Amino acid sequence: MDRNPSPPSSEAEEEGDAVGNTVYSKHWLFSILTRLIEVISPEKTEPSVSPEGIHTELDEEMENDICKVWDMSMDEDVALFLQEFNAPDIFMGVFAKSKCPRLTEICVGILGNMACFQDICMSISKDENLGQVLLQRLCDSDSPTLLETSRLLLTCLSQPEVANVWVERIRENPSVYDCVCFIMSSSTNVELLVKVGEVVDKLFDLDEELMLNWIKNTTCRSVGPSVDDSPEELPDFKIVPCILEAAKQVRSDNPEGLDVYMHILQLLTTVDEGIQAIVQAPDGGKETWSLLYDLVCHELCQPDDPPIIVQEQKTVLASILSVLSAMFASQTEQEYTKMRKGNVKLTFSCYFILDMPLIGSLIRILQYMEGCGKRSVDNSKESEQQETGRADLNEEDFHLKILKDICCELLSNMLQELTKENTLEGLHQGHLNEQTCSCAFRNLLPLYLASVESFLEVLREADQTLADNLEKRFPSLKVHA
């Protein structure tokens, strides 16, 4: 069944039978809850019941009815009614006894809808037994159940009043790390990967200690109660390769999902341990750099895109460039350390250090942002009398400024390390010319004056005429041959 049936237009004919201000019948809802109890507590073995006496499949009528409750639970009055009649306790029984994946999925989904309302969310969150059982659902082998569990967790983590309860619970439950890593590294379900990514992103954003624990976590553990077709022991997961694998799965089908996983990587780089986890991987960070490089140079903000595309892609670009910048700075520092210790000339042998297509892409992003800046000025003049319009423009400008700052930092660091050979390569490939260099200088000056002057000295060796023309355009530069 691809979608849940729509709720019936209930005929609450008996006086006082309506649930709150809805047209749904209390009697009907109560009857479904009663039938649900009977499903998980059969008195006799039936054809649809397993040898252990537990249903493995739902009959069509029961599935339709419980799906109607699922849809109805989006209404606050219905959610409160379910809470009043201890529906969460009934669902606990389902999780403990049911071998029917569809029934488990629906019950988690109903809880997820109920958790959208603050008081109910607080009640669900403070129930320690229910909380532990829900976390165990992350070990399930059924993708729809995993999806609904992730939605429920994200809903609770998004409620400030209870977020810390769940963060602490997850921190104390080591199996969550293993199960989440297993999903990210092995699932091909894009919708599930996006939702799990949103949970991880929210967790890392809420609690740096938990993020540090997951960065350092490399031990193999049992994942708790065994679930059919799921491993009792999971491999020795490391967080970065799992994030990369999930990002590769979602990159083509879900731009929002890619944005989520790039932001997770960016959060990792806010702590030294996260940067080291990336650059000190067995491949030295090559897989991470290659993926991000490919996104910037071959997918995002391309030459045949209109400049306005930078508005649509500004957040994912900011995350990607932030990670690249952190990796570049870390590897550059390591190269200088090696040079000082070995008393040898700095060669920048690292595979990504001086990549001209990336420099060309950074300049193109700055060019597109200049185009968007002009458009924003024009729009602001047209909307001077519209407060909402100005607020939207200010928000756009804020995110573009973040992107510009990150882009300029990385570009300045890369330009500062260029050699004559690198520069000649950039000129030959068309990444460096008077137009692109002028754009770079406009954005880098005056903050990155030292980097621009260093680059101009090298450029003079590669193309004297171009260097002279740029110096005339930017007379504040003082370059001594």
TrEMBL record:
<dbReference type="InterPro" id="IPR052464">
    <property type="entry name" value="Synovial_Prolif_Regulator"/>
</dbReference>
<protein>
    <submittedName>
        <fullName>SAAL1 protein</fullName>
    </submittedName>
</protein>
<dbReference type="GO" id="GO:1901647">
    <property type="term" value="P:positive regulation of synoviocyte proliferation"/>
</dbReference>
<comment type="similarity">
    <text>Belongs to the SAAL1 family.</text>
</comment>
<keyword id="KW-0539">Nucleus</keyword>
<dbReference type="GO" id="GO:0005654">
    <property type="term" value="C:nucleoplasm"/>
</dbReference>
<dbReference type="InterPro" id="IPR016024">
    <property type="entry name" value="ARM-type_fold"/>
</dbReference>
